[in-house]
TrEMBL record:
Gene3D superfamilies found in the cross-reference section: Dihydrofolate Reductase, subunit A
Record-linked InterPro entries: DHFR-like_dom_sf, RibDG_C, Riboflavin_Biosynth_HTPR
Residue stretches in coiled coil: none
UniProt domain Bacterial bifunctional deaminase-reductase C-terminal: residue ranges: 4-178
Protein name: Dihydrofolate reductase family protein
Source organism per UniProt: Fodinicola feengrottensis
Amino acid sequence: MSRIVVSEFITVDGGIDSPGGEPGFDRAGWAFQFSRGPEGDKFKLDEVQKADALLLGRKTYDGFAAVWPTVKDEAGFAEKMNSMPKYVLSSTLTGPTWANTTVLGSVDEIAKLRESGDDELLVNGSGQLVRALGERGLVDEYRLMVFPTVLGGGEKLFGETSTAAKLKLVDSQVVGTDGVIVLTYQAL
């Protein structure tokens, strides 16, 4: 069975997207005001290098697809992002232009994809998708890079749910010089 790993930039008050602005990088710009240091950069690089595919919601996909194909870097992060398989949950996307993209029409299709594989599917951003996956018990691990700020509004990672989820903290580390903390939880 494939593992679904959610990786999020998140604020102390649970925000993942600031109010206003456009979806994608603009609305998470608050995260780039803090130093996550070389160890935080290495964490994100290792995470992407280990992943077999990306699983994204439509808004995050659109933001990523507009940026990543033009990015060049020495570490190989962009090369991996652009070459790996990508699955996007959307009922309206047709003819995706970002290389290696497959459109999935429902969370049921994601559940079937998870059951049929043995790889790691990495979810970045995609708050609505993450909440739907969590509601269905499809998330195996949460990697939360917590930034020392409070947005006071905007989209939250977790909302109301019909089922409680129990998590086990398996790793924590402070990265950078600004008090950014990476928390890794396994779903039980």
